[in-house]
Amino acid sequence: MLTAMTAWLPDTTSAEPGAEDRALVQDAVAGDVTAFERLYRRHAGRVHGVISRLVGRHGDRADDLTQEAFVRAWQQLPSFRHESAFSTWLHRLAVNTALMELRSRRSRPQEESDELLEFHEVGGSGSDSHHSPALKMDLGRAVASLPPRARAVLVLFDIEGWTHEEISASLGMAVGSSKAQLHRARQLLRTRLGDTP
Asked: Which UniProt keywords apply (predicted)?
């Protein structure tokens, strides 16, 4: 698992992460693999976090997609123009990697029902789940239990700060559908977290 692999890695975040990232990117583009490893160590946790929030209860798949995002970053690094921070560029690349996974799942609808089944099996839908701290679902698990498109819109809008226009373009849906999916996701979260009146 990625988190186990990176747990021993030192946090190399400096007071000026953008300047250090720029220097590391330049060294990596010049062929310095160690510089790219340092970029990986600096950003792997956040990249894995956003991918796992987007793809849901597929922990091993999130690990694979994180690795895939970094492979793509290595391949595309020479085209990085420093018009934005490296972390922003990498983050968008990671989100696009996860979105490609979600699009590919549309042809495999069984996976969505499997996620909902897992949600019910852990006690998320029980009427007493919001009363017992031991049974109360945490936010991360609740987000992971959402249907994939609703989860993607919620994560991109509420967590990643994307606009509905950006989401609609990335997910291939109308802006109105993005807004509707966000509303649906928020309502499902309220219900699953026991916050409904």
From this structure: Sigma factor, Transcription, Transcription regulation
